[in-house]
Write a structure and sequence with these properties.
Number of helices: 21
Helix content: 55-70%
Number of domains: 3
Radius of gyration: 24 Å
Shape: globular
InterPro entries: Aquarius_N
Organism: Tribonema minus
Pfam family, one: Aquarius_N_1st
Largest sheet: none
Number of strands: 0
Distance between the termini: 64 Å
Protein name: RNA helicase aquarius N-terminal domain-containing protein
Length: 408
């Protein structure tokens, strides 16, 4: 197949002018579908051999990437590119050079990568069928309008691709596309109370947040006018008037992948309760997801706005209490050893003692003051809402209330 369609020496019209979607689908289903990362980030030996064979014949450079189309390429085509890209990263080859994105600008290769990265985001958020009417109609007929469900192997491969992307921020084009996922609009996923706390802690961001809310409101009005619907009246209480409230009621930006991913991880971990066997590929997906979060928290540009969202979603607590973590009953599952190791790394970077906006190391006094402020906030909430359940906690000293044994 390689010599007939894309390898060096193939007919001119075979690798440059046409592509066979059925061939791409066949290769993906028969050769690549099971080549995603397994537990411990390694694929099976036979899967590695298949990937290496396709890599040697330049399947990505000569066939997949030149014929990628932002709106028409199928799911097997996109996933094939992802798997081949992961193989290049694993072997130490430059994926960015292979697709023409190396260096500033990127030219046509840069435009194509931007479109491809948008497809990756839509795959992870379940919105990919909006690109192709035929695919959307088929999905609607098959599953009442729901987007096709990705397997855990595919989710793990996509997450590994994101890890590789965020480890390549030295590429200007990649940096511009990737950092949009971790910018200020991510705070639209925060609860109103948490958003108010963050804007109070960093007042210099309030003006930027108000500007973003005004832009979102204007876009919503324009969309409503285009659809012939009358926009809802703000009545003085719109986004600009109340930036701390109601952010969850509005449509979240497409960059808000962290919300869906964190919920997906916690829910998936809950499926492993008991002693039953975990679904195939789930372990690899959860490990890759935690690895992605660790990488994002270890870099200031990606940590800056993401950490507040992860804290608000209680990702650490939910992962710790799931059966793969410590377990709600203190009996963790044995196959979750690497998951728990990654969770400890996540815990370390989540609590790293720096200013999230500036990167300045926090002094010991600042760390103690922040800890006591959180304790006093907890005591006020307990006194107001849970005084009958925990009558002694609101009146405990900070040193006493901060001990795990006392809280238990």
């Amino acid at each position: 197949l390689a010599h007939q369609n894309w390898a060096a020496g193939a007919p001119e019209n075979a690798c440059k002018n046409t592509i066979s979607p059925s061939l791409v689908t066949k290769i993906y289903k028969e050769e690549l579908h099971s080549c995603g990362p397994g537990p411990g980030r390694r694929a099976a030996a036979n899967a590695n051999r298949r990937l290496q064979l396709l890599e040697v014949t330049s399947y990505l450079e000569n066939y997949l990437w030149p014929h990628f189309h932002a709106t028409k390429s199928s799911l097997p085509h996109v996933m094939s590119i992802v798997l081949m890209a992961n193989e290049k990263f694993a072997r130490g080859f430059s994926f960015w050079d292979a697709v023409g994105v190396e260096g500033a600008g990127g030219g046509k290769g840069g435009e194509k990568f931007t479109a491809f990265f948008a497809r990756i985001q839509d795959l992870l958020t379940g919105a990919w069928t909006r690109f192709d009417k035929k695919q959307a109609a088929a999905a609607a007929a098959a599953s009442a309008g729901a987007a096709p469900k990705l397997s855990y192997h595919e989710r793990a491969a996509l997450t590994l691709f994101l890890i590789n992307v965020f480890q390549s921020l030295e590429q200007p084009l990649v940096r511009g596309a990737a950092l949009r996922l971790c910018s200020l609009p991510l705070w639209a996923a925060l609860s109103p109370g948490r958003l108010a706390l963050e804007l109070k802690a960093y007042p210099q961001l309030r003006r930027h947040w108000l500007h973003l809310q005004e832009q979102a409101a204007a876009a919503a009005r324009a969309a409503a006018a285009a659809n012939g619907n009358a926009p809802a009246a703000d009545g003085g209480g719109g986004a600009a008037a109340a930036p701390e409230g109601g952010s969850r009621k509005r449509k979240k930006p497409p960059t808000d992948e962290a919300d869906a991913a964190a919920d997906g991880e916690a829910n998936a971990g809950d499926k492993g309760k008991g002693k039953g066997r975990l679904p195939e590929g789930l372990m690899a997906y959860l490990e890759r997801f935690l690895e992605l979060l660790v990488d994002l928290l270890s870099q200031l540009p990606t940590r800056r706005f993401l950490r507040a969202v992860l804290l608000d979603m209680k990702v650490l607590e939910r992962c710790t209490l799931c059966p793969l973590g410590d377990g709600a009953e203190g009996v963790p599952r044995p196959e979750g050893k690497l998951f728990r190791q990654l969770l400890e790394m996540y815990r370390f970077y989540l609590g790293f003692e720096i200013n999230d906006q500036t990167g300045r190391p926090l002094s010991g006094e600042e760390v103690v003051a922040m800890h006591q402020t959180r304790l006093h906030t907890l005591q006020r909430i307990v006194f107001k809402h849970y005084k009958e359940v925990l009558p002694e906690l609101p009146f405990a000293s900070a040193s006493q209330a901060g001990r795990r044994a006392y809280l238990e």
